[in-house]
Amino acid sequence: MATLTQLRIVVLQTKRDLWCDRCVATCAVQIIYVVEESGRVPNAVGGLTYCEVCEQR
Which residues of 13-36 are buried (b: 16+ CB within 10 A; e: fewer)? Predict the structure, then answer.
């Protein structure tokens, strides 16, 4: 029987206009987040930096 898992992503902070090493411009965005799985307490903070111009992660 399949088990249903619910994920909830909570964005804690966003930072805009960060430096992108690939396209050499201030166009990147950083997102700091936590993930809660099936109502459990989040155990780690994650981060993602993404460039809006060159789409580099």
Answer: eeeeeeebeeeeeebbeeeeeeee
Say how far residue 15 (Cα) sits from the centre of its chain. Answer: 11
Instruction: Output the CA–CA distances (angstroms, integers) from residue 56 to 8, 11, 52, in the order listed.
Output: 25, 20, 8
pTM of the model: 0.70
Question: Rounded to whole angstroms, what are the CA distances from 49 to 4, 15, 18, 44?
Answer: 30, 9, 9, 17
pLDDT(5) > 80 = no
Report, as an integer, the average pLDDT of 32-50: 88
Q: Which of 35, 29, 28 is nearest to 11 (CA)?
A: 35
